[in-house]
Design a protein that fits this description.
The radius of gyration is 18 Å and the shape is elongated. It is built from four helices and no strands. About 55% of the residues lie in helices and about 0% in strands. It has one domain. By secondary structure, it is an all-alpha fold. The longest helix has 20 residues.
Length: about 100
């Protein structure tokens, strides 16, 4: 889940121990994640197809790749499950609990 506030997003990434990429002051730490993902897309998505008819084809191919990456491969760093499944599990475990003694 991406956060709309860049300061909150940066704080989240820092809290998870994600390092900033090299860049100018004020760059979002999320750029390091995007650089990693783009680095995977180039050899696995873009180069094998060689000719792309247009920008819409690249956008669709990228969306399909992101969907595949989030839902299909098993990742050993998160217990051999797909990232989407891990994210759902995380948010189920971290639902806010109602305050004791408060009736809604």
């Amino acid at each position: 889940m991406l956060l709309d506030d860049p300061f909150v997003f940066t704080a989240q990434l820092l809290g998870l121990g994600i390092e900033a990429s090299i860049g100018t002051v004020g760059d979002a730490l999320g750029s390091a994640l995007m650089e990693s993902h783009i680095g995977l897309c180039q050899p696995e998505l873009i180069k094998p197809r060689r000719a792309w008819p247009g920008l819409a084809d690249v956008e669709l191919g990228t969306a399909e790749r992101v969907d595949w990456f989030n839902n299909q491969p098993l990742h050993s760093a998160i217990g051999d499950i797909p990232p989407h499944e891990y994210e759902i599990s995380h948010y189920v475990q971290h639902q806010p609990q109602p305050a004791a003694g408060v009736n809604a």
